[in-house]
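Protein: RNZ1 protein
Species: Sitta europaea
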Amino acid sequence: MSLEITFLGTGSAFPSPSRGAPALVLRRAGQCWLFDCGEGTQTQLMRSHPRISKIFITHLHGDHFFGLPGLLCTLSLQSSPEGSRAPVDIFGPLGLRSFLWRSLELSHSQLLFPYAVHELVPTPDQCPPEEFKDFSGWDAGEALARGPPGRVLHLDPEEDSYLLVEDEELVVRAFRLFHRVPSFGFVLEEKPRPGKLDVQKLKDLG
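Structure follows.
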């Protein structure tokens, strides 16, 4: 399995003209996955015009996700109204769904492709107690019905992680990190692949 990683920005809270806010693209099997989406990410992506199919947000500090509404709008502008662009799956901490839905509603943004937000429910021990906020009640009533679809993912206590993606080649899991706000790291694990043996040659060699 071929993987290619491109750092679009590493400037964190203090981006500069030569170092954008955090964002990283992983290319595999013709797909492009984005990890974090700081402001300006959409501009950096124009260098290669990748078709983003999955987005992973580590935590809800602005320098890691404020670029997300603009990126989705740019991807929409690059889409054909008659096209059948595949849905974009977005993974991130609880509260991300509400942020995205409200941002796009307030700006009257209408995307030409579907998207889903899959939220990871953090545990209180992922940040200092005074910083932990429970966003589980934000998406209720009308907002819940009108917002984007998606799953709510809870910690698997046996694996001590969250299962996000699984296909024939790899598994993607999130694990908890300690930061000022609940944060997550992501692990891509390639599945074992059977070796290729020339059975007839083995027989010939005894």
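Remarks: Residues 4-204 form a domain with the Metallo-beta-lactamase; Chain A fold (CATH 3.60.15.10).
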